[in-house]
Amino acid sequence: MTSKDAKASAARREWKSNDSEEAAWQQAVRWLARRERSASETKQYLTARGFAPEVAESVLGRLQQCGYVDDARLAAARAAYWHRRGYGRLRAAADLHARGVEGAKASRVLDEVFADEEQLARSVLGVRFSGVPSDARQRARAYRFLLNRGFPEGLVVVILGEAC
Asked: Which one of 27, 84, 140, 146 is CB 3.0 to 4.6 Å from 156, fit for a cystine?
């Protein structure tokens, strides 16, 4: 490392300590440019980078005001992603929970996206098993398959009960 690099590095460290909120803002914007994140993930990222919780909270507020962080938008995008891939509401809810998006926002979005959950389960089942299996062993496999895909047990029982 040359003396010029060392001076630049020292200047960056000093700038970060002097203007912590601006440094946190810059880091958060760069991080959010890669992909959409939740408010919880963003706050956790900033505190893990050594910024004070108050600074992280302040920067998060600015990010939300500017539209860089929007939990409702993230919830809609993630729920639509899981729906397109043929997964159920419970799988999407687990993903949102892992990202720190919970409560009314998540419920409202999941209700909208998975309004046709029974139809989705039937189409996924049709692709994998060519319809509702009639043999008990295949029904057990289909039952496990749909549960692992994140469909509620009650719905799976209703769909597979039609073959009896």
From this structure: 146
> Helix-strand-coil percent breakdown of the chain, rounded to 5?
75, 0, 25
- Spatial contact of 82 and 151, defined as CB atoms under 8 Å apart: no
Residue pLDDT, tens place only, 42-54: 999 999 999 999 9
67, with CB counted inside 10 A (0-12, 13-18, 19+), is: exposed
Q: Do 76 and 98 sit in the same domain of this protein?
A: yes
CB within 8 Å of 158: residues ≥ 6 apart: 118
In one-letter notation, the amino acid at residue 92 is: A
Domain that holds residue 47: 14-66
Structure tokens at 9: 């590095």
pTM across the whole model? 0.79
